[in-house]
Amino acid sequence: MGSRNIAENVSTYDVDDDHQDDRITYEHECSLRDSPPILSSRFKSPKSLGFKIRRWFLIDHDHPMTRRLYRSSYLFRTELSRHIKSDFWYIIHPFSRFRFFWDCWLLFYIYAILLFIPLRISFTASLLEDRYHYVISAIVNVLASFEVLVNCLTGFSRDKYWRNINLNPTKIFLNYLRGYFLIDLTFALPSAMLVKAFAHDEKWISITIDVVHVFIVLKLLSVKLIWGYLINIFERYKLDMTHYYVIRLILISGLFVHWCICVYKLGVLMANDVEQGIDPQWDEHVRFLRDRNNSMFTRYGKCFATVLFYLFALSFGELGIPKTVHGKIMASICIVIGICFQMYLYLQFFKLITIKSSSNRKYAEAISELEAYINMKQFPREMKNRLMFYYEKKFQKGYFAEDKIIETFSGPLRNQIINNRAVRFYEKVPIFRGISEHFLLLLARNMEKEIYLPNDMIMKAGTVGNAVHFIYTGSVAVYTQSGKETEHLYDGDHFGEMSLFLRNKHLVSVIAIEFTQIFVLRRKVFAEFVRPEHELYQRFEKVAKERMQQTLVAEEQHKSHLLMKDGANNE
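and the corresponding structure tokens:
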């Protein structure tokens, strides 16, 4: 009955096929009133200093995570508006411009701290006697205090897609408390000065320092953050990812060797005096490292030369073959660690060679083939730019044959991948809310994916449709046949639902505003899975009726406006 009512309303509004435009693209010039700058709700003038500063703390369109997780302008503007209009508008967004450059600073800061930690542990006794140690500690304390403050003011999300970013300061602090807060606080507290000022008993000084060292070593957990900061830099500035892996390998190797040197120094100081005299050369080596009259850099250099022999040359260097039990144990441990480290280096080199021929290289080859094809066909510059843009958006600078990859998986694993994509899709679509997950998975598996570039004609008024279109990511503009732009649709919206019930011609044209991914549900599939008594059927029917009425009213009003305008011009 619902379908018959729709047909009665549409029957007088068919369009003559002879007057259809065969263009597949359409220059979209937005006629809808642009919304005022969202920041104007907080700052009156876009030229004000407060306006410019505040932009640094809001979500940044160029942040790598924004491009990855908030691909469409709708998602970006929604998140931007939510942040500004919230009660916690002063909180730093994790994908802001400020946070990006702060993370760049943390990359160097955390790496420097990871170099400083073993020096502080290995040379604590001598460092506490040096005045410059307190200067360095004070600088570290100040920088760590800023790190704690910024982390307490930066939003977070426990959602794996980072779509629900929490901006509540209390919840941010509680989340931080469960993570790195105590570790970061250890660096913010002037522990060296406090120990010297209040601990006079040597025993308590030693215990206090040991407790501090336990928290200090936990800072090693932050090493995984460095690689995230580093990869964001490469993605933001579109640098070659091969260089990322090379730099990462160099940083890891330098950190590993440095820690080995400092741990070796600690191990040497554990030598028993009982074995003294058995190996004069080893005894001299131990005395040199224990003598605080020798500068820290001199002793570090001695350890550096010895450890490098053990790690890479598999020889005992200037020490010869140790004769003491302690010396043999130290040498054996270093050699075993050295063999493992060399194997790690070999594996990383093979990985780099593999990456050279992986998706990035295949993408470059695909682009070269595309350019050759364009040159051979002599396409105009505009067409060339659109094709290049399509490749960049579709493959995200990493070319791979998805169909062939999925074919290699087992049936259950393949279904899991398909289900994961389907779940991410239907969670965005409001009309699917409340419908059973099993039913939606079945429906989503039978949809087709389509990709459109800016200004592509997705649906044309006057043509017969046979499917409803769901916007996965992107935005589109809707026009009546007379050219009236009525609305914009975004992620999770749908259009063309009337085609599920009737074979009439479309009342509107739909143009892609930006790079848009769409899932298409054909009428045949819909009829096979969705019965008239099903709730989803009734929802689509209701929406189809409402939109059809709105479109007809908007079209009639626009036609009347055009007639009045023409009449005024003729007069």
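(Above: one complete record from the training split.) The first helix runs from residue 2 to 10.
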